[in-house]
Design a protein that fits this description.
With 445 residues, this protein is an alpha/beta fold. The protein contains 18 helices and eleven strands. α2 packs across α5, α9 crosses α10 and α9 runs antiparallel to α17.
Amino acid sequence: MTYDQRLQNVSVLGAAGKMGSGILLLTAIEMTDLSLKPENKGKLFVLNAVDISQEMLAGLMKYIKAQTLKIAEKKMVWLRSAYADRKDLIENGEIINEYISDVVSIIRPTTNIEAAYHSTLVFEAASENPELKKKLFTQIDQNGLYKPWFFTNTSSIPIKVLNKEANLDGRILGFHFYNPPAVQKLVELITITENSCEMIDFAEDFAKNLKKIVVSSNDYAGFIGNGHFMRDALHGIGEVSLLMKNYSFVESVYMINKVTQDFLVRPMGIFQLIDYVGIDVVRFIMNVMNPYYKNEDLHSDLLDKLFEMGVKGGQNADGSQKDGFLKYEKNKVVGIFDAESKKYVPISDLTEKCDAALGALPASFAPWKSVNSNKNKAAALEAFFADLNRMSTLGADLAKKYNRRSNEIGKQLVSSGVAHNDDDVNKVMLTGFFHVYGPINNYLK
């Protein structure tokens, strides 16, 4: 089966979700572009958008139309070539509207999983639940007409486990998009020995056509991205416990969040990142990973406690941030949750004392956004961390310790066989988490 043939009937499971909607959009664009090739004119391309709610699917289609408009506006030269035989399409607006119509026409929104029985390729973006994934794969495989390939977006579950439990004979691999898929450049590709060369080649070609950066990870729970993030988060949580010998819980959370954002020049502090992913999701991923690492305890009592209180983080339907460790107003941090009083303490009540305790940032400090856009980024980072190394404040010491642990985690991912090399670990954190430098570095002593 050729590349084009494999993409003539595709299904996306969990299509209306945060990850599934982006995967559906990217796949719909690729399939539509294929359908416009002269050799494919007249061929039927079908993309089943499978989810549990008609209301969510209706919202999904609005999202697809809006995003396709933006994509079309950026590829007008190609679209004019693709529609060159359409003499009725003259103005840019006419061509764009036709393209949107073509994209939408191949998508079949449905709440019936039976639609996937006719697919040769199935993307799975359901919740990170091994039993649910197994159930979906098994049902489609047992009833499907074409023995489809399954590309799972799991960020933590070993592929070999899903392959064995759903009895897929190697027709599954990990194709882990980062959030949001339409924007993020990274895809983690996780293969197993049972995968065919044809399947792996297709996955690499598909990612290339989506203009994604592919990093291959070996099949260990959590892979590279969550392998680092979960351990990094646990270190931050552990540092809060240590600080609580001298400071309150909210003060400690504030300080570690500030250290991980400002003193380490990251786009978010560690607790803001946990909120962004979702406390419930981070907790669940740790629970998935923990049984596979007998010499580690990838578990947090604090996350359990917050989850039981209903403090979960994540995003609202409009993309705004839900409250978690931190309270947000217009996506700006304005408070920190106190697990004892079950109330948010305003940031303004904490800054003076906590900032004084941490000590000043180096004079060469610039926020992540400025450093990331700096053409001389490497030099800026060298200067900043050289200054930080000469400091012995609480903030500087916490940053050095955090960086050492982050470096250690990265090296552990390579030595244990999860990642192929240091560069792959750094590439995942640079492209998937938007860090301005990789965890395996020599910046802080």
